[in-house]
Amino acid sequence: MTAETERLRDRVAAELTRTRGRTDALIAAVDDDDLVRQHSPLMSPLVWDFAHVANQEELWLVRDVGGREPVRRDIDELYDAFKHARRDRIALPLLDPAEARRYVAQVRDKALDVLDRVRLDGRPLVADGFAFGMIVQHEQQHDETMLATHQLRTGAAVLTAPAPPAATVRVTGEAFIPGGPFTMGTDTEPWALDNERPAHAVDVPAFHIDRAPVTNGQYAAFIAAGGYDDPRWWSAAGWDHRQSAGLTAPAHWERDGDGWAVTSFGRTAALVDDEPVVHVCFFEAEAYARWAGKRLPTEAEWEKAARFDPATGRSRRFPWGDEAPEPRHANLGQRHLRPAPVGAYPDGASPAGVHQLIGDVWEWTSSDFSGYPGFSAFPYREYSEVFFGPDYKVLRGGSFGTDGSAVRGTFRNWDYPIRRQIFSGFRCARDA
Hints:
alpha+beta, Four Helix Bundle (Hemerythrin (Met), subunit A), 31% helix
């Protein structure tokens, strides 16, 4: 075994262990009654997510990569995300919390044994530890989903984290992004998922983009101006949804005298004006942008603003460069339980001076989710391809609940345009 392979094994093992620590903390924060309860029809019971991440780990690492005998073949259908809608999972004969904990531990023991023995080269599934990286990212994605479930639960607060850092620079206005081609997507990121591939040139006309996400204070001005009552700002589909869903403000906002209060993870406090707005759906973001005389950026515009370095003509891994995210770069990994004020991460700005593109809030774009030219499903169609089409809008950049292993300048998220239980916000753009 080469020293390089040994370092890769150590890194994979560390990522698996670090990720499981986050999962365990989210599960341990509540009692067993809360684990089996469905806190919203939009979300699974927490105990389903917990066993599901282990079932995926068993399917890919233990059975496929390792060629081992199944741990629990009898539960595969229960934890298949395509077999049962989230709202229906509460009625399934799921593993109870104690059984789930035993199953999760058994699978991890076997997965680590596979890691010790398998070659990390050869077939694409294992080259550069891809299958292990896929499982790390999958679990971190479910950790963010479980964090969103925690936001929807009622009762006493159970999660704690320090407040995000204060702003250290003033960030206002727009950045100008010159027209021309740039490289979108990746061929070199070893753990990039299929929808991020292949790298390809995209010619993007010149545009302006907000240097920061839209803040609570800016969004409150839209509400105060009657933005929710004026169909001029809404698309036809957006206005229908606003009326049918009774939308009057972002989720978790409530009137507090002349101002607003926000409930976050069981704690209610006054709205912080300079933090990015969160828990808005695509239609709300689109209406605000139109009211402001702008629009939402396309996905290609967002990525060019985040990655393109005009000094070198190349696309970076992250807005600040190629090095992995550190706490000084971005609000990631559940270190804080809300977005940071605009201007809190100057070290994370892009070459064009666009701030907080990574972390804080997922940012809605105007683009439908589709494959890039030359897309090839890997390692299974259900990861991306089955979602392609106009039903889903692309979000970029990650949130305060996204782990650094599960977001990068090329990473793509997608959801229905009505969804706002996710940690979603936005920034605006306009033609040059």
